[in-house]
Design goal:
It comes from Streptomyces ramulosus. InterPro entries: Cyt_P450_B, Cyt_P450_CS, Cyt_P450_sf. This is Cytochrome P450. Belongs to the cytochrome P450 family. Strands 1-2-3-9-6-4 form a six-stranded mixed beta sheet. By secondary structure, it is α+β, with helices and mostly antiparallel strands. The protein has 19 helices and 13 strands. The N and C termini lie far apart (about 50 Å). The protein is globular, with a radius of gyration of 22 Å.
């Protein structure tokens, strides 16, 4: 009995679903998301009807101006996902693929008004207490440690050996964790974002780690983000503090890892770009902003929900409709960038960090990590080159991001830095503390499907209800 290679109508492998609407999920969408966005723009204009997992309807905002309109007017487009009609009517249950990113949580990016101001103030005020020079010293130290591990080999994958680990190592220090947590949190965070069969267990590991961190900082305060969050006048509960620590940790990991990888790729492949750097016409911060225009760490952000019937970009939006901010599509909107080959030096009007009251509060910390980390890498390995043809670099796309899987490079082998030089700017690392006992010596192993299903029901309810 033979089987046809063509998927049946209605199968997610097709890029077009019911009523001819294009899907933002499945092989076609993941193969070329930017190409899909331009098809949608040509067919519908600056706001396009699309389908999400399970063929749920939504609107993808493609225009730069329209994205800012949605982001800046919470009175029309709320961040409270409890307004989502499909969720209210039971079409988005605990096991739906969008539940982890759409179910309401007691965090600042899911509330508006006074509640948002209280929770966001705790985050922004605590972030603003960081010493930027201190952050850069941490980045330099950890970057040198990571580079030492592969500098003598003359080749490396800069995603797995550098870009993914540097942000997490820095964030563990800023949050007040032992740096020994870093490698394991990278594994758990990567597993969570991929949505693998062990994602539930990895999430439990991250949450348990953060819960113990909060308990430790309640008992023994320190000079770190966790302590400042707990001491803030907003009087966060332990649950609120843990949820915000998770948001900060995971967002910093994913966005900064993507920013580092994409910027290094541009440096080693774009001749005009590299000439500008070496010729002194473009600073590394300028380069980062160019990448934030062309390859924003998140391609879309889910989501906003219409508070009433309204109109946007010529489309009639109904109360309870979901909207996705199309950050990548808005950044290449022909109305503001008719010629994509023209550089945008010094222009920070991109959408990479969203906008309005929910604009990313930690963007300058992410820039500092990426800028200092890449600067250290180029100083240590000045002749770094791509080890494969650029079209052969693998990517993994999802609804909200396009993630570089590997970045193989080669360079002249270099010796490790002397220990006294590498550690001269900062005190020796703190003695490693034990990780939560229940987590075991490594991130959790695979959970059988039936058990994962059982856990996910109670776990999602507990995690996203804040209880």
């Amino acid at each position: 009995m033979s089987t046809s290679p063509t998927p049946p109508p209605g199968c997610p492998a097709h890029g077009v679903g019911p009523e001819g609407l294009r899907r933002l999920y499945g092989p076609e969408a993941e193969a070329d998301p930017m190409g899909l966005y331009e098809k949608l723009r040509a067919e519908h204009g600056q706001v396009a009807p699309v389908l999400l997992q399970g063929d749920l309807p939504a609107w993808l905002v493609l225009g730069h101006r329209e994205n800012l309109d949605v982001a800046r007017t919470p009175s029309r487009f709320s961040r409270d996902s409890r307004r989502w009609r499909d969720m209210r009517e039971g079409r988005v249950g605990p096991e739906h693929p969008l539940t982890p990113v759409a179910a309401w949580q007691p965090v600042c990016n899911f509330v508006d008004g006074a509640d948002h101001e209280r929770l966001r103030a705790a985050v922004t005020d605590s972030i603003n207490r960081f010493d930027r020079r201190g952050i850069r010293r941490y980045v330099t130290r950890f970057a040198n440690q990571l580079i030492d591990e592969f500098a003598g080999a003359g080749q490396a994958d800069l995603v797995s050996r550098f870009a993914e680990h540097l942000p997490m190592l820095v964030m563990t220090q800023l949050l007040g964790m032992p740096e020994s947590y870093g490698p394991r949190l990278v594994e758990a965070a990567r597993d969570m974002i991929k949505g693998t069969e062990t994602a539930v267990a990895s999430n439990e590991f991250v949450m348990q780690t953060l819960q113990q961190l909060v308990e430790r900082k309640r008992a023994t305060p320190g000079h770190d983000f966790t302590t400042w969050l707990l001491e803030h006048r907003s009087a966060l509960t332990d649950d609120e503090a843990i949820q915000h620590l998770r948001v900060v940790l995971i967002a910093a990991f994913e966005t900064t890892a993507n920013l580092i990888a994409n910027t290094v790729l541009m440096v080693v492949t774009d001749r005009r770009f590299r000439a500008s750097l070496s010729g002194g016409h473009m600073t590394l911060p300028d380069a980062l902003e160019q990448v934030l225009w062309d390859e924003p760490p998140f391609t879309t952000i889910l989501g906003r929900w219409a508070t009433g019937d309204t109109e946007l970009g010529g489309q009639r939006i109904k109360e309870g409709d979901m909207l996705l901010l199309g950050l990548a599509a808005g950044n290449v909107d022909p109305e503001i960038r008719p010629d994509l080959t023209q550089p945008v030096h010094g222009n920070r009007s991109h959408l990479a960090f969203s906008g309005g009251p929910h604009e990313c509060p930690g963007q300058d910390v992410g820039r500092a990590i990426a800028d200092t980390g890449i600067d250290t890498l180029l100083a240590r390995l000045p002749d770094i080159q791509l080890a494969v043809a650029e079209p052969d670099i693998p990517y993994r796309s999802s609804l909200m991001s396009r993630h570089m899987v590997e970045l193989p490079v080669r360079f002249t082998p270099k010796p490790s830095m002397p220990a006294q030089t590498a550690s001269s700017e900062l005190p020796a690392p703190r003695r490693s503390e034990p990780l939560p006992e229940a987590a075991g010596p490594r991130p959790p192993a695979a959970v059988p499907a039936a058990e994962a299903k059982r856990r996910s029901g109670t776990w999602w309810r507990r995690w996203f209800s804040g209880h």
